Amino acid sequence: MSAGSGVMRWRPNRRLVADGYADLEWVPHGRTGWDFTLACLAYGMRMDIERRPPDLNAWAARHGVPAAGRCAELGGDALVLWHGTTRERADRIVEHGLFHKRGLWTARHPAIPHSFCRGRSERFGGEGAVVCIVVDARDVPGEAEFETDNVVRFHHGLPPDVVEFVLVRDEIRFTGAERSREPAPWPGESFVRREGDWTPARRSPVRYSDDLSFSTPAGLAAICLDRLLGELGEASALEVFSCIYAAVRPSEAVPHRDILALLAGSCVEGRRHGKWRTFARRPDPDGGARDGR
């Protein structure tokens, strides 16, 4: 999952916010580009919309990575927490676990950890990272305290086997001890530039499913959007961006404006959730499935 080269500076994308996409505030400036740490905010957006913790493994599948066996095994006792850090420290966390002498701070909603991730990136000039951990909620009261409904502070370290996903600029890595077979990761595709056009690295058209295929990045993006709305009913622009950029590689193959145009042409505005807005499928006059182009 490529997001381009170089370290991105975190500057608010005021143009997209002014255009009514408040949830796209941290989308990279320019025509294209994506930072995969933003995928945690897509999880948080689903949390805001549903007013409850969403399905972490469904989130993983939509981003083309394996589902976590630990999360599936714990079921309703799984407590999903997020921790903001740097890419360098994230690599050490995967190997040695999490620890801080003043207590280990995590959050159920990833907005705060992502803010910390951005701050660390700006302060030290490197890449930020967000770590997703899953713990048994039945063990938490004796090992930690809930500072607020959102923030959980552990008084000791956590072992590396609680780390299920690491989100860095250019990828989302599954680091859990065991994978779950369901749900299966959504397919993605690498594209190459030939004679000025982006075409699939494999022979075109590429079969996505028994009845869907695509031959362009826009075609795959349209399939992802339709599948996302089929599963969720309604989705924010951020969730759409996150899902599409997880499937289309490199991110340069699908400009931001193409995704916004896809939303405008294929969707109607759904409901408002505070300052967030969602999109739903535009009724298909033919009543058939949308095929990739």
In short:
33% of the residues lie in helices and 25% in strands.
Structural description of this entry:
The chain has 293 residues and is α+β, with helices and mostly antiparallel strands. It folds into two domains: 14-34 and 186-281, no CATH class; 67-180, ADP-ribosylation fold. 33% of the residues lie in helices and 25% in strands. The protein is built from ten helices and 17 strands. The strands form six sheets. The protein has a four-stranded antiparallel sheet. A three-stranded antiparallel sheet has the order 3-6-5. The chain has a three-stranded mixed sheet with strand order 11-10-15. α9 (237-247) crosses α10. Mean pLDDT is 90; it is low at 1-5 and 288-293.
Q: What kind of sheet is the major sheet?
A: 4 strands, antiparallel
Radius of gyration: 19 Å
Percent of residues in β-strands? 25-35%
Report the principal-axis shape: globular
Helix content: 25-40%
Give the count of helical stretches.
Answer: 10
Alpha carbon gap, first and last residue:
22 Å
**Tally of distinct domains:** 2
Low-confidence stretches: 1-5, 288-293
Biggest sheet, spatial arrangement of strands: 2-4-7-8
Oligomer: single chain
Secondary structure: elements and pairs:
Blueprint: H1 14-18, H2 39-50, H3 56-62, E1 67-68, H4 69-74, E2 78-86, H5 87-96, E3 104-107, H6 111-124, E4 128-136, H7 140-143, E5 144-146, E6 151-154, E7 163-168, E8 171-174, E9 179-180, E10 189-194, E11 197-200, E12 206-207, E13 213-214, H8 217-232, E14 235-236, H9 237-247, E15 248-249, H10 256-266, E16 267-273, E17 276-281
Parallel strand pairs: 10-15
Antiparallel strand pairs: 1-9, 2-4, 3-6, 4-7, 5-6, 7-8, 10-11, 12-13, 14-17, 16-17
Helix pairs in contact: 2-9, 8-9, 8-10, 9-10
